Please model this.
Amino acid sequence: MKKRIYITRRLPEEAVAPLRDKYDVRMWDEEAVSVPRDVLLKEAASAHALWTMLSDTIDRKLIEQAPDLEVISNLAVGYNNIDIEAAKQHGIVVTNTPDVLTETTADLAFGLMMMTGRRLGEAERDLRAGEWKSWTPMGYVGMDLHQAKLGIIGMGRIGEAVARRARGFDMDVLYHNRTRRHESESMYGFVYAELDDLLEQSDFVVVLAPLTEQTRGMIGADQFAKMKDTAVFINVARGEIIDESALYEALKAKQIWAAGLDVFAKEPVAMDHPLLTLPNVTTLPHIGSATIKTRLSMMALNREAIVNVLEGKEPKNRLT
Model:
């Protein structure tokens, strides 16, 4: 009998086809809608492999009701949607997709800095709506990126990639991280700073830290109060790292100048979310890794990890 693989979103056939001859592949037939919880539980109960998305909750209950499960491969770098400890206790391999999306996500982060700092989204929306009536001396003025000071919170692979791009704009780079990046400091001139110092000095603050119990809610009212009133705040990590209510109040009170967000605490974001009412907020629908090449490469990593585990081989990017 063929081993069963369940895929929790509809993926391109070119990503799935290599599995079909050897395995019993089942796939949720929606791309834009998450698999319902009851369907996921039912499918997981007989699956040997789960190919999951960040929007899927793979908790202890699911894991304990999936006796044949050997591997969970997550289409993301992050894996806070999976109970890693429960998977480890049940001998289930968990993998993710690091490295391959580093440069693409860094491109997006830098693009969001430019959109927010230079008010590109706001200007484009006004032009399409017919609101642009005349050139004005101070119309749509924004913040320069060149020669600005960039503060990066979370100096992992993506953080370093963003920092390298910043050097091309002649930006000074501060960073805060759990561990010092001495090699990067000596090679590129990046400067380590305590979090408060980084917030006080930076013109652009970019959050790129992973979501952990230590980082959850780490940026709130006290942190926004330390930032310049001309500062631009960017989050391309996880929404739960920041206190969204505190961000709203800081923006509304003009404690900080603007924010660019690719992520929210709850996704998709509700249309009545207060942050969406502010003109100085630029928002994107969690598209950090969204290029054709990168997404297909991520899927290839997931597929290879699943095959390796089901064939008794050691997979890449193993988390458990």
About this structure: The longest strand covers residues 149-153. The mean pLDDT is 97. The CA atoms of residues 221 and 246 lie 5 Å apart.
